[in-house]
């Protein structure tokens, strides 16, 4: 997987398992990204086991605000805390006999997916888009930001290849200059549906300038970690669409972000952090729960039977919509053989 600011040949995630005194286990996938959040797999395991677990042990899993208040003693570590939060919601759902999407809001029964087209040759990206189009996908994130002319050429090719009802958007990973982003927008007028993070979050002047100079929405990601981040982006009017990534927010904090966005009439989308089926199920649950999530939500290759998975269940896609597991909690059971196979010991 390659994008404007990096690449990734393998992934090292953390399986969070929390057991209650009544024998109910909650699970979650915690995702470290050292180049984004500053968290590593080894560091996350240490933080969860040795710093956060002692703070929350003995608390009622339904008292999630108390849990977050306790975890706040340890600064940062958003992804580690997010994993604990999702596992607690899994416990709550199992205890109540309800799926998480019902507990979290229950707004819709399915969501529209989008897929990421990583940086590669134009021909490969076009072939991928055609194949996914045939499977029912009608939205694609096109990785870009390094070369405006190449991005323009690539989107032209993709637009010719996909169906007329397919949405295309470019994720610049904050790598464009103002002039580069404006050039891409102007050349792709009528072909590009929205931008994601075209300009660096530290370059606020040009971010606002671009937002006021183009006629398509701009979505946030790297500038949207916390409630304070999002409130600031709304205040300076730099973004039209807000993104949440459950691995860095959990469900509890994600709902707070959604409430803020609803108050300021900002629609939302869900971003992928290269989750396995376990993590992707959490995205479907929150996507179905919240009214403010109205843009297609990003997924990885959950519909590939050969994709590695830690759970026994498969996420269902039908007629271009993705449906959440319907069992209690996340609706997932661990494949213990797969867990053993993929566990890193050291």
TrEMBL record:
<feature type="domain" description="Mandelate racemase/muconate lactonizing enzyme C-terminal">
    <location>
        <begin position="122"/>
        <end position="217"/>
    </location>
</feature>
<comment type="similarity">
    <text>Belongs to the mandelate racemase/muconate lactonizing enzyme family.</text>
</comment>
<keyword id="KW-0479">Metal-binding</keyword>
<dbReference type="InterPro" id="IPR029065">
    <property type="entry name" value="Enolase_C-like"/>
</dbReference>
<dbReference type="Pfam" id="PF13378">
    <property type="entry name" value="MR_MLE_C"/>
</dbReference>
<dbReference type="InterPro" id="IPR013341">
    <property type="entry name" value="Mandelate_racemase_N_dom"/>
</dbReference>
<dbReference type="Pfam" id="PF02746">
    <property type="entry name" value="MR_MLE_N"/>
</dbReference>
<dbReference type="InterPro" id="IPR034593">
    <property type="entry name" value="DgoD-like"/>
</dbReference>
<dbReference type="GO" id="GO:0046872">
    <property type="term" value="F:metal ion binding"/>
</dbReference>
<dbReference type="InterPro" id="IPR013342">
    <property type="entry name" value="Mandelate_racemase_C"/>
</dbReference>
<protein>
    <submittedName>
        <fullName>L-alanine-DL-glutamate epimerase and related enzymes of enolase superfamily</fullName>
    </submittedName>
</protein>
<dbReference type="InterPro" id="IPR029017">
    <property type="entry name" value="Enolase-like_N"/>
</dbReference>
<dbReference type="InterPro" id="IPR036849">
    <property type="entry name" value="Enolase-like_C_sf"/>
</dbReference>
């Amino acid at each position: 997987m390659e994008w404007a600011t990096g690449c990734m040949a393998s992934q090292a995630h953390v399986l969070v398992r929390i057991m209650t005194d009544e024998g109910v286990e909650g699970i979650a996938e915690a995702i470290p990204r050292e180049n984004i959040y500053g968290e590593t797999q080894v560091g996350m395991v240490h933080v969860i086991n040795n710093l956060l677990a002692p703070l929350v042990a003995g608390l009622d899993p339904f008292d999630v605000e108390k849990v977050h208040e306790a975890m706040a003693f340890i600064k940062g570590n958003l992804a580690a805390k997010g994993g604990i939060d999702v596992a607690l919601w899994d416990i709550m759902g199992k205890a109540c006999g309800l799926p998480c999407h019902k507990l979290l809001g229950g707004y819709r029964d399915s969501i529209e997916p989008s897929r990421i087209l990583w940086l590669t040759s134009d021909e490969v990206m076009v072939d991928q888009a055609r194949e996914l189009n045939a499977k029912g996908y009608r939205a694609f994130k096109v990785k870009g930001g390094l070369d405006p002319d190449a991005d323009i050429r690539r989107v032209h090719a993709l637009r010719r290849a996909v169906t007329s009802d397919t949405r295309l958007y470019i994720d610049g990973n904050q790598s464009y200059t103002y002039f580069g982003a404006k050039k891409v927008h102007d050349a792709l007028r009528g072909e590009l549906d929205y931008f994601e993070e075209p300009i660096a979050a530290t370059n606020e002047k040009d971010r606002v300038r671009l937002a006021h100079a183009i006629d398509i929405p701009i979505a946030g990601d790297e500038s949207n970690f916390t409630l304070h981040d999002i409130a600031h982006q709304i205040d300076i009017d730099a973004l039209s669409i807000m993104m949440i990534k459950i691995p860095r927010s959990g469900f509890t904090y994600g709902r707070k972000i959604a409430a803020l966005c609803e108050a300021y009439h900002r629609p939302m989308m869900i971003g992928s952090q290269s989750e396995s089926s376990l993590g992707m199920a959490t995205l479907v649950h929150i996507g179905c729960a919240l009214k403010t999530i109205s843009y297609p939500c990003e997924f990885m290759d959950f519909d590939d039977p050969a994709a590695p998975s830690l759970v026994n269940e498969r996420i269902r896609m039908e007629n271009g919509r993705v449906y959440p597991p319907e069992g209690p909690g996340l609706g997932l059971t661990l494949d213990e053989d797969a867990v053993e196979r993929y566990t890193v010991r050291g």
